[in-house]
Amino acid sequence: MRPAQLGDWEQIYPLYGDVPGHDSLAAARERFGRKLASELECVLVAVQGQRVIGVALAHQWEEYLMTGERQIRFSTLKVLPEERRRGVGKALLEGIIAWAKSRDARWLEWYASPSAVPFYSRLGYQGILDPTPDNPYYEIDFKAGS
């Protein structure tokens, strides 16, 4: 696993499949480049040899005004179907968690698709079904109990 590079784009975009409503690959590539350049974004790739087999994205929200606490939104975890159940997704999630901790974040949060729920359950995460029962909400509070 490593931070993504602009040259990874050609192998990353196929991981997304056919996204309804996407504008253009050129526009998506431009946004990808902006994410790589932003200190508030984390884009990680899992590689096998020279092949990108997974990608994870997260971004930091602005600090809360009165507390200064940071919240990280984990927005993407994609792994090639033939590489699933081999620890790739877990390694990418652990990389995102490490990045969030390095940012001194209070929370890491994400929504999951129904097909991803068993993956997160195997890792010990339980989603909250309300208000979105089809896409449960997950949260790690890094300072809970401290």
Keywords:
single chain; 146 residues; alpha+beta; six-stranded mixed beta sheet; 6 strands; 26% helix; 27% strand; globular
List the helices and strands and how they pair.
Blueprint: E1 2-3, H1 9-12, H2 25-37, E2 41-48, E3 51-60, E4 71-79, H3 88-102, E5 107-111, H4 117-122, E6 137-141
Parallel strand pairs: 4-5
Antiparallel strand pairs: 1-2, 2-3, 3-4, 5-6
What do you see in this structure?
The structure is a single chain. This protein is an alpha+beta fold. The longest helix has 15 residues, at 88-102. It contains 4 helices and 6 strands.
What's the quick description here?
With 146 residues, this protein is α+β, with helices and mostly antiparallel strands.
Largest sheet: 6 strands, mixed
Name the average pLDDT: 91
The secondary structure category is alpha+beta
Q: How many β-strand stretches?
A: 6
Helix content class: 25-40%
Distance between the termini: 30 Å
Uncertain spans, ≥5 residues at pLDDT below 50? Answer: none
**Looking at the structure, what is the overall shape?**
globular
Main sheet: strand order: 1-2-3-4-5-6
Order of helices and strands: EHHEEEHEHE
Rounded to an integer in angstroms, the radius of gyration calculated over CA atoms is: 16 Å
Percentage of residues in strands = 25-35%
Q: How many separate helices?
A: 4
